[in-house]
Design goal:
The protein has 478 residues and is of the alpha+beta class. The protein contains 13 helices and 14 strands. It has a domain at 8-314. Keywords: Membrane, Transmembrane, Transmembrane helix.
Length: 478
Amino acid sequence: MNNIKELEINKSYVTYMFPFSFHEKQRQKLMETLERHHFRFFELNNKELQTGYYGEGVKIRHERLSQFFLPYIEDKLFPKTTKNRGFLRYSKEINEKFVWKLRGQKSNFAINSVDITLCPFGIGVITIRTLGEDQETLSDFLHFLSHFRVLEPKLEEEKGVKISNDSYVFETTNQLVLDYLCPSVKPFIIRNEHLEGYYGSLPFFEDARMMSSIFLVVKKDEEILQEHLYRVAQVDGRVEGEPYISSTNSDYIERFVKERLYDRYAPNTYTITSENVQATVTNNEEQTYRKDMEEFMGTMYYNLLLHYYYKIMLLKLSFEHSEVSWSKDKDYVKELIELISKFYSRYYFGQVSARQEGKELTHLLRETFNLNHLFIEVKKTLDDLYRAQENQTNNRHNMLLFMLTIYTTISGIYGMNLVIEDWKGFTDWSKVPGYSFFEWISLVTALSGIGLAIALLVSTGGKGMLNKYRKWKRDRLG
C-alpha cells in the first residue's frame, strides 16, 4: 500500500443518485407536495433553468440535451408537462456548505442542488449535486466518497460519521437527505420491513449505497495512471488511515480498466464506468475542461440516469415474479407480462443517441450494468411462469367440462326434464323427505346446477370488474 502513487485533486464535482420506490397512485399528490416545498418542474423550454443548479458559473445548455438524444428518448426524458408520461424532474437550489468527519478525518463540500425525478412504474431517484474545492489527495477524496455513499452504516468501520452545517449535525447520509434536504418526499417512500432505517429501500436492489457520478479535476502536470482509474472505479480510499487499492495484480487492474474505460480524449481526459460510479478524470485547464464538465452534468448525467433506471426496473421485475404465489390467478401473471411489455416498448431502447460518443457511452453502460442479460432472464422467467399458469387454467377448464358433462348426462337420462310434479306452483318442501331415489337425484341435480350457474355468473362478473380495475391501474402506471 505504501507504493500507491497519489493524485492531487483541485476540484471534485459529484452527483449522487438515491433510488426509492413510491406508490404510483400517490404520484399527483407527491408532485403537488414538491411544488409546495419550492421544487420547480424541469422543462427544456424554460431557459432560466440552464443555470443555478450546477454550481457557480456552470451553464447546461438545453439545446445540447435536445440534440444529444433521439426524439423518442427526448420525449420521455424531458416531458413538456407533468401530465406526459416519462421522467418528471423537480429541482431545488440548496447552495449550502457542509463538513464531513470520521475519526479525525474530514472533508468540506457544498451541496449545489437536489433533484427528485419521478420515473415510470413507481420508481424515483433523488439526485444530489455536490462540489468540493479543497485541494486533497485521491485517497482522501475516495475515503470520503466511500462513506458518504452509504445511506445506513452497517459495518463497524462505517459507523461514527458526522455531517454538519451551521445549524445541524447528521449521523448518516440518510438523515441528511430525507430529514433535511428532502423531507417532503419521506412520507411517500415505501418502506421495506426487511431493511429497517433505509426509507428508500428497494428489496430487489443490491445494497443501501448511492450510485455516484464523478468529475475530478487534477493538477495539470499530474499523469493519470490505470491505477488511479481502477481505484476511482472501485472507490478504494483508505484502510486504517493508509491509501488502499483492492488488487495487487497489475494484469488484473489493466484488464479491469480496459473493459470499462472510455479514452476518446486521452491522455488528458478519461471516463471509467463501474457498478458503483461513473467517473471522468481530467488534467486539462479550466478553459479546456469546462465543456467536458457541462457534458458531465448534462448529457452524461441523463444517459447514466436512464440506464440506472433500466437496471432498477429489470431487478424490480425479477423480484416481482419471484414473489408470485401459485394461488394467484392467471390475470396476475398477465399483469406482470403486460408490465414488462410496456416497459420494453415505451422506455427500454438499445440506442438512445445518434451521436457516436453517445452510442459508445451507451454500450459501456449496458455492458457494465449487465442489462442485456437481466432483460433476457426476466423475459424468459415470465414466459415460463405464463406457460405454467396456462397449464393450471387448462386443468380448471377440464374440471369444469367434467362437471358439465355429468349434468348433461343426468339431464339426458331424464329426457332433459328434471321437473317433479311437486315443484309446480307452490312448492311443498314437507314432501321432500318422502321422495324416491330418482326424485332425490332430480332435486340435488337441479339445486346444485342452479348454484353452479350462479357461482359462475358471480365469478365471471367479479373477474371482469377486477380486470377493468387492473387495466385502469396499469394505464396509470405506464
